[in-house]
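Here is a typical protein record:
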Amino acid sequence: MNNPRNRCAICKGHKLLCGRSFCPILRKLRIAKSIYNSLKLDKDIFGESPPHLFVGEASYPYVRVAPSVTQFENSSILSDPLKWEVISLDDAVKLRLVLVMGEKPVHISSSIDFDGLVMSTEPVDSEMILAKRPTFKINLDDVAPVLNPKAKLEKLRVVENPKVPNFVEKIVNDDLKAEDCIIALYERGFSEYYIIRLLSAGLLGIKKRLVPTRWGITVVEDKIGENIKREIINYKPIDKFEIYHSEFLGNIYTILLIPDSYAFELSEVWLPKSIFGFSGVLIDYEFFKKKGYANETLGAYYSARLSVLEFLRNRKKQAKVVVFREITQEYYIPIGSWQIRVGVKKALEKRVAVFNDIKSSLKYLEELLAHPLKDYLKRSVILRNATLTSWI
């Protein structure tokens, strides 16, 4: 039974041959069924758009553009997952599935606004006409996500006036680089996912292009992070070693702040029985100057880093920061990097220890971490840095 597919066929979710305490496939099916039964799915759907827009990356430079409509009450929360701080993983999946998507293929040179819907800061009553009745696509795989009900989009009709701030209209129409637009909107207090939506829709920048949503999230988090980084290097370092610890949606976050000039490192371990299986230690890092893309931890790196940088900015301090992310079997379905952004932010609200030296800090970390500290130390650049070595 070395073949996982054979194992699942024999188990059928009841024998738990994978070693988990529950079957992720059956859990996904139950959630999808509960949502499917609650939705009134037809070719013609009237409801609110949160607003929400998804741009797929397959077949780039031709991409799938998909606005969404929902019959869910209080739909504004659906457009910004950074507000999902006190929900369960099951509920997070449900909040995704209540969005009905209408897809259409376009070239990235297009610019999509759907009569102001994309730029609206509040939900907009809309009518979506689809080529056929939308359906769920559920992959019977323990690592695959459940996809929204969707069908080919024939027409989207906005039936009320979108709420578009004057500042946003000015930014969209000005001859500004996309990076400058992102920073200006962020500093003005606009939601991160609102900015991502504008970028993905091809509304920002001089040479406007549609940007796949997944890429847009990384771009926005990276540009905002780099901007904050340039500010915090002018602040004094913290004066003690600080440790923070919390768990969110099956992810355990342990964070070490070191009294020194800025540097950042994300160490990530998918623990045994997690959805992707045991990974060993994955690591990406930077000192002040970033070194290319985070090839091991991918988008998680930029999400975690931005939460850390905002925390340091609010304190008007700098530090070397090591974030340990340990993923348990409870994180049974991938739901996006937003949960890392929120998880690190929540962890930084829970300081569990303060020390005067690195030796005491490492000893305490050893007790908190689910994976052996010695394995992290073998790969950590920051913890093996010469200045730290002299402190041990």
